[in-house]
Amino acid sequence: MEQQEEKIQENITSNKDVIVINRRSFFAVLLGIGTAGMGALLAVPVLRYVLYPLYAKSSKSIWTPIGAMHEFSDLSKPILKPLDLKQVDGWREVDSSQTVYVTKGANGKMEVLSAICPHLGCTVAWRKGHDDFLCPCHGSIFEADGKHVSGPSPRGLDTLPHKVVDGKLMVKFEYFRENVPNQEVVS
Ligand code: FES
């Protein structure tokens, strides 16, 4: 009888241990899940910050003033304008210089052309006597409105978005894919 009581007592003690261990495991799992959840929540903004330059467009152009509109009242020939550009590249702001031509487009309206040759990226120059643009690298020739005349360039000179703000002509300078027939923005 005494032995039986001891056995029962032993069983009760062992069951209590199991319950305590199970409770501990449950709280440990709960704590683990909570910690992992918090870690994931904190990791999202950090990852977004670190990876931003990878998924963001490589660089973003900013509208840049070219000059007062009255400077472009006579577009009988393209007008060369140097630009000081600011571009946002990931977290950085990059300063650079570029050249554009303000000219009369095929439809008679004002156009802003990039001076970067669409073939392999040399800078075209306006030739006074010939009234055309010549690329010094491989000899591509373009009309005053940017239309391709001859040479290896697969397309005409690239047109840039422009607008007038408070009497000033503004341009959004963009870079385009080289050596392809259509104008594709790359940055
Ligand atoms: S870079 Fe202009 S023709 Fe080749």
Report on this structure.
It is a single chain. The longest helix has 54 residues, at 2-55. The chain is elongated, with a radius of gyration of 34 Å. Helices cover 29% and strands 30% of the residues. The chain has a four-stranded antiparallel beta sheet with strand order 1-3-4-5, with no helix packed on it. It folds into two domains: 1-55; 60-172, Rieske Iron-sulfur Protein (3-layer Sandwich), CATH 2.102.10. The chain is of the alpha+beta class. A hairpin with a 5-residue loop joins β4 (92-104) and β5 (110-114). The chain binds FE2/S2 (inorganic) cluster (FES). The site of FE2/S2 (inorganic) cluster has 11 residues, from loops.
Write the layout of secondary structure elements.
Elements: H1 2-55, E1 60-61, E2 63-68, E3 79-89, E4 92-104, E5 110-114, E6 125-127, E7 132-134, E8 141-142, E9 148-150, E10 162-165, E11 168-172
Antiparallel strand pairs: 1-3, 2-11, 3-4, 4-5, 6-7, 7-8, 8-9, 10-11
FE2/S2 (inorganic) cluster binds at residues 117, 119-120, 122, 135, 137-138, 140, 151-153.
Short synopsis of the structure:
This protein has 187 residues and is of the alpha+beta class. It contains 1 helix and 11 strands; from the N terminus they run H-E-E-E-E-E-E-E-E-E-E-E. The strands form 3 sheets. It has a 4-stranded antiparallel β-sheet with strand order 1-3-4-5, with no helix packed on it.
